[in-house]
Amino acid sequence: MTLTLYLHPLASFCHKVLIALYENGTDFDSRIVDFADAGSAAALFDKWPVGKIPILQDEANGRTIPETSIIIEYLQVRYPGPVRLLPEDPEALLQVRLWDRFYDLYVSVPMQKIVTDRIRPAGAHDPHGVGEAHAMLDQAYGMIEAQMKGRPWATGDTFTMADCAALPGLFFASIVHPFEAGRPALSAYLERLLQRASVKRVLTEARPYFSMFPYREAMPARYLEAF
Ligand SMILES: N[C@@H](CCC(=O)N[C@@H](CS)C(=O)NCC(=O)O)C(=O)O
After folding, report:
1. Which CATH number is associated with domain 90-224?
2. Cα(141)–Cα(173) distance, integer angstroms
3. Largest Cα–Cα distance in the chain?
4. CA atoms within 13 A on the CB side of 68
């Protein structure tokens, strides 16, 4: 097997790349990174010193590819499959890149801020930063509501990298900062994502690890059942 994805099955950014891999039926091996295990963490830091997952190792050419958006673009260039996640048309491509950035930076990052603050040591919490993260999610939800009116997928009629980015952010954000009433297009979009076969597979593989999620008690019951 030439491709190895270093990941954790609960990690939202890993879900983004897994969705892309499953959409295209791309063959790969996975290696779980356990940050609590010094050897496992060192193997990651050796390859990508900022220590973020996922990273993709390509044995065929000895390359390590970090950063989810770059990994997905790399897969499309080097290992294309039936589902084109980055469109050929330059204008459409800009929209996909924009909404990919949007979901990473303004949904996933504030969601992570809220989640990780819960497991900080006593005295190291950041209530101001967490408040800002909640405000950012409110802002993002409003913008997604407007964007998704009349669109099945993040940027139009086809499923793209932006949808790969949207699912993990929205899934976990919907737990820590539930959608307020009056967000029907946002809610319908998340439901549509949850019905996608690649997404069902990712969340099914993540479910055994849900007990490790710091907001486990806030997970809707249906998230704990089969997708
Ligand atoms: N910008 C990065 C973000 C990756 C990221 O934040 N990954 C999280 C897991 S979801 C991580 O590695 N967290 C470990 C840490 O921050 O120590 C990407 O798109 O790949």
Report:
1. 1.20.1050.10
2. 10
3. 50
4. 30
146-204 residue pLDDT tens: 999 999 999 999 999 999 999 999 999 999 999 999 999 999 999 999 999 999 999 99
- 55 Cβ below 6 A of ligand 1: no
> What is the whole-number distance in angstroms between the Cα of residue 40 and the centre of ligand 1?
16
Name, in order, each residue with C-beta under 8 angstroms of 36's C-beta and a sequence gap of 6 or more.
none
CB 164 within 8 A of CB 20: yes
Residue 165 contacts residue 99 (beta carbons within 8 Å)? yes
Determine which helix (DSSP H) or strand (DSSP E) holds 3, and give its type and residue range: strand 3-7
The tokens describing 17, both together, are 């790349």
Interatomic CA distance for residues 99 and 73, integer angstroms: 15
Domain residue limits, the chain = 3-78, 90-224
pTM over 0.85: yes
Cα–ligand 1 centroid distance for 219 (angstroms):
21
User: Which among 44, 173, 43 has a CA at the least distance from the CA of 113?
Assistant: 173
- H helix count then E strand count, the chain: 9, 4
108 Cβ inside 6 Å of ligand 1: no
Tens-digit pLDDT profile for residues 4-39: 999 999 999 999 999 999 999 999 999 999 999 999
Taking the domain 3-78, which CATH number applies?
A: 3.40.30.10
